[in-house]
Write the structure tokens for this entry.
Amino acid sequence: MDAALIPKGVKRCPMWQFLLALGVVGAVLAWGVYAMLLCWIKGLNQTNMNDYYGFALWIWADLAVIAVGGGAFFTGFLRYVIGKNELKNIINYAVLIGFICYSSALLILAIDVGQPLRNWFIFWHANIHSMLTEVAFCLSCYFGVLCIEYIPLILENRQIDKVPFFHNLSHNLHETMALFAATGAFLSFFHQGSLGGVAGVMFGRPFAFREHILVWPYTFFLFTWSAAAYGPCFTLLVTWITEKITRKKLVKDNVIELLAKISGWMILSYIIVKGIDTSYWANITAKSMGLSLHDFYGRNWFYGYWMLFTELVICGVVPAVILITSHGRKTAWLRVTAITLGVVGVCLNRWVMVLQIMATPVMTFDKFVLYYPSWQEVATTILPVAYGIILILISYRYLPIFPQEAELNPIDTNEPVSRETAIDADAGTDSTDTAADMAPA
Amino acid sequence: MKQAQKEHTTKRYGMVIDLDKCTGCGSCMVACMSENNVPFKTDESNKLDSITWMQVYKLTNGKSYPNTEICYLPRPCQHCAGKHEGHSPCVSVCPATATDYSKETGIVSQIYTRCFGCRYCMGACPYHARYFNWWDPVWPEGMEKYLSPDVSPRMRGIVEKCSFCFHRYQLARNKVYLEGRKDLDEDEYQTACTQACPAGAIKFGDLYNPEHEVHRIAQPDMQHGGRPQNPHVFRLLERLGTNTKVYYMSERRWVRKAGDNYLPGEFENPGAVAGSH
Amino acid sequence: MSAVDDKVTDLTQNPADDAGESPHPPSESEETTGGSILLFFILGLAASMVIGWVIFPKLLYSEKKQPINFNHALHVSEVDDECESCHFFREDGSFSGIPKNEQCIDCHEEVNGESEDEAIFVEEYIAKDREVPWLVYSRQPDCVFFSHSAHVNGADMECAECHGHIGESEKSRVYEENRISGYSRDIWGKNIAGFKRNSWDRMKMDDCAECHAEADGHDSSVQTQKDACFVCHK
Amino acid sequence: MDDASIWSQNWAWTPVPADGAVTYENSTCTLCPGGCGITVRKVEGRAVKIEGTKGHPVNDGGICILGLSGLQLLYGPTRVASPLKRIGERGDGKWQKITWDQAISEVSAKLAEVRAAGNSHALGAITGPDRGTVSGLLERFLLVYGSANFVRTPTMMDNFEHVLYLTQGVEATAGFDIENADLVLSFGSGIIEGWGSPVRMFKANARLVENGADVFQIESRLSNTAAKSKHWVPINPGTEADLALGLAHIIIGKGLFDYNFVSTHAHGFEAFKQLVQTRYTPAVVSEKTGVAPGKIEEMAVKFARAAKPLAICGRGKGSAPGGLKEFLAVHMLNALAGSVNRQGGVLQMPPPDYIRWTEPVTDELAAEGLRKGRLDGAGSDQFPSSRHLLNRFIAAAAEDATAAPQVLLVAGANPYYTFPGTQVVKKAFDNIPYIVSFSSYMDETAMNADIILPNHVNLERYEDVPVIAGLSKPVVGLSKPVVAPQLNTRHIGDTIIRIAKAMGGHIAGAFEWDDYQACLEETLSDKWDALSGSCIWVDDAYAPPAPDQAFNTYSSKFEFNAGQTQKALNADNPLPEGNTAEYTLTLIPFDAMRLANGYIGNPPFMTKIVADTVMKRKDGFIEINPVTAGKLGVKQGQRVTLSTPVGEAKVRVNIFEGIKPDIVAIPRGLGHTAYDEYLAGKGVNVNELLGTVEDPASGHDAAWGIRAKLTTA
Amino acid sequence: MLPFSFEWVWDMGHIVFHGGLWYALNIIGLGMTWCIGKAIYDTIKGKGAHDHH
């Protein structure tokens, strides 16, 4: 039916499968949209946030998607600035994932503020000393860059490409892409950092506060670094999931392994620096304020030492070690374990840097408060996931995302279809990336 | 303006609260709400979303019956100056310049119509002095009549906090201008909580002015970030460098200790406290 | 100033886009000559000018009449103390603003003169003890704190510096209310493009700020190095 | 763009308060008996803020949370907007609006009917503790109508008066010069919980702190007062009298008493000495009270050696009278220390005596009714020196439908909620066919009345406020209308005068005033000028008489051992209801400073600042010691059932170190069923779990608690 | 934010921050303009109608 739109040389599932998947994910999306409207119309009383938890699930989700979306800028940086050409085979997908992550982040921010109609004040009345201002400016600009990077992909659709203007535009964009990628890397460097800075400058919150280098607290660099390190893990993870669902090899192993290796070394270096930072903070910064590690991690079961251990060791040292060894990254299950742990690790880091800061009391007579998100918060947090899946579904179906797909999956082989499994997978999962329709038809 | 106004009347308004006199009655809280048009809901028992610019904390010495002791600690906005004047935890982080530090009075302002509700300032404030309007303020029919025109009622979705009743300063200035005087008297500008406190536990005035009660009691050392020189006076979380303008006084050691975080042994041996001198 | 620039963009460019371009989306295949492009451009500009300068203000502002026509000139000639005769300071330093019936009643207990407005005033308001619902040209939003005392007593300013020559007016102007914000056009400024010639043409935040920035000692904000927010806001 | 921004900054539903000229008006707060001066800030006629009057002799600028919240009562939703007549069942809340003429003619017709049937004694009236012209008018109305059943809500002051009458032979109220004392022994008095005149006591407490005075707070719970005192002495509840007499034992034994006072100005000391020496040895007292013998001795010695010691009692806010024995025992301590009528001591104060209306002419019907006497037995042989016994009045009405009043007027009181043992009130109400409420607010009593004739609230009306709340100078305040009446209400004084006039005859004849204001001006004639200006009249020159002139007993001396004193001191302590086998715990109600628990319920601001360990959503909390909690196996915040012999309630547990083990404490002031959505249905009304215990000497309710148990099911 | 805005202060912070920002925006803007311009030019030149690379 839509054969004319599907890229040449590849095969896609039947239309009904595609629509069914869209429908299912679309229902989740609608649920999220409903919750979002509730928040806009009735206000933030729909959430379980409170005066102790001014930042909660959303800001975590925001920081987390931006961190995992960091794969886009870092892969772009490696491909266009450093010149790792193999990565051109995965850059499209990285850009798409980045685009989804950043648009989601902006959407979440738009729900999160108390007076959404005054959002533009942050630009118009900006206080440049605020890390959040830097976040807003760089985030929006970098989102613009991602749009520019995504446009040529859209233009490569078979039908659009037939229009000469679009064809030319796409061609020219490709030619100048290095410039955009470099600018994007610059912007992303700053906003990833300033997201870290958001926490690090809060000198009233010893859990968050980090000493300064120039105007930036350590967390500035740690955030950029961790996004660069763990972002590619997410790109790899989503690629792996896509491959599993489509049952196709989409990217060659050497590409995957190269990215995994770089990520591994980045994680290792990050974890070392993070370890130094943590011990400096615990032993010097916090102690100068009369606090010890125990005050932060020893007074509440949820925000206990286990969290610190998981973040640094299980989700830091372990994936780093797996990915830097050739055996580790070449063994599929080890590699997948490592990138999964990596993604969990960076999300956990962002969780700690948002929620534990809010939870940890500073005044001696204050209390440790826990918070549970309301369904509206959960729904609006799942909303971007659903939106992301839909965008991937459409993009994968109609755009040549994986340059190596045709080569790796010649279409004259006539394999049987296992639709049942596809549908099962579809119905069984709700929030994680499901793209059953990608199963070969 | 026609004439350049060269009156440098720099002040640092601040408070001293005598915790031994404070009874925890809550008059300061209610006086504040009624002065500043603070709204109320049908259920205010969730203290995590209940707006009380002035909040009275109940401290205990942690000992068991019958050696338990209780102290009440009223906490308005501390109007931090930070390490360098104006570097308050909240002011420096607000992305939209909705909160500001006045070099003339030392008061941290909050402009409700500028705030768009990002809540970064709330995260940055270790005193929980900032409150978010989770709901639209609603007064029962007819009760809007008691709203004061001196303070704008706030709308849903923005942050508010204690202003040291700044409108009272403004209104007092009106009179000073009219009468062609230069300066305010100590009693011309007092906050609603100070005025209402039945125990007389709250004193308010200019910390710079040696004639003002607050200066006499707290003896702030302005060379060292306003650190109190009176040994019975302390500030909340002094060690963070927030440099607050609300001083507390108590004869009881455990109360003074509760004002800040100390590693074991530090409070007993103040010389060892890093960064406090 | 920045707000003004932005407004210009809003008013002139956007309508041009709407009026001119959207009905005829530029298409690569369309054959166009240079002349027609130019004509198109000129027509579009003209249309946008009309929209921006004439239609838009009409849409934006609703016109309201004051309940009674007030002759300032006449009153000023009757009283001794100019503006302050009626718009005075109270003892506590606050400013009384527009007079209440209480102040008018001394002279207006009975209908004076021939004026129809006078008759309405006395019969409808004074006699019935109702206050006149004046529309205040200079009414600022609720978040604004304005001290007349600081300006008139403290800085020796003249009323006219902000209010213009209203004291010489013989009739009450039409009150134009902004349909979006609900405030008077005097606040936003008569000139739709935002230019002002006289200090009293406009009463926006930037106008206040302009003057405040010029005076010495007005740098109490650590954020802006100008006057702190609380000076004018509540 | 600017427009959009201004639009997004000015939501139409956010109110914009109108500006205007600011004026201040002074008045006197009548929300509690404290008599504070208030200054109301007004903007163009709207009252926007209540502040304490600077320089006022009672509160000097300070103000309590109830006074501060007065505007929420004035403009709030709890008010009764017009006269209402019940149309549904009692308590259903179905009302019909009627006009004032209808209301007055209906009530006067009902009263005429009862009277014509020869049942004039069957008219009862319950008022608050106030002693000004409003309750005076009501009392006068009953008198000419022909009923002796005028009942004032008793407070601790009734007992103090009783004590002064017995020991000093005077009809006087008690004043306490706390500010000048250097040691205060407080037997459970909530000095800062609202005892007497709250704001004055806050200030006095601050003075005590400044002066470094020793304050011993003797009670089983670490109340705010205990927390602010130098010494907290936990005691078994209900044994305060024993402790006081035990202290007397030591003071006398060590010869530390004021020899001059005792030998020159007192009589009956030997008998008293014998009583305490034999029955109140430290060992016995320590056993009973749970206070260590060493502590008892320390207190006794410190008290006796202090220059200006003062002992006070009256639990919590002092709104419940308590047992006479305790009051007598405490007063004896003051006498032993010579702290009677001297600086820093207990002062005998002249009762308000400015109401000097002409004796009304009564008719035969009235005389007949008056001869039938009082339902509560006050002034009878059994309780010769008691004047108003609300507990006995209610019990009598509940017990026997034929004896119960046929018409009950309720003004300035809310017995349906505040009386301990609410079930008894319900029964009594069932026996009373016609109940008239004068309440300004839809309180529980009004809710269960048949007709409501709403009074103006305090900011709308004139009223004289004779302050009898323990001040050390005679003070009369004047409450003035600060704003015009907001609703279709009428001053209760006017309503009474109108009803009287509608009834004609001698009744009308006794109310010759045109209206209440005329009555008030006439009554206060010599003070009116001063009062209408400053709203306060103080007899600064007053000094209590010296010991040689003060006492009006038979011996003209202070009586340690008058007949009734002996009887009271020898009586056993009133025991709480319930057996100890089934009910292993003791429930005590307590007064919390952030809960109004009298006639007026909490306004929203007050409820807003109630701690979440006292009330969470709709649940009320009980306080228990961690040891008790451990024994019962309950955790913080857990829901449990609290039962007493009288009733049971679902509550949550707050584990609190500052309470004696085996005691359960609940604050008074929650569990309202009436008022507004900001108050109703939250927490538990402790009065529903309590009963009364009649004091054998005074007839007042002397209960201080009740046996209780906790079940987790 | 532009220097006309109320919040603007002529200090290093504002100049560096906005300098960086405008620098990035300019690169993006100019880059895009060039791409679009070149595409229009190429199209007019008749290039690329079915020219697959």
Notes: Chain B has a mean pLDDT of 92. The two ends of chain B are 45 Å apart (CA to CA). Chain B touches chain D through 63 residues (CB under 8 Å). The first strand of chain B starts at residue 13 and ends at 18.
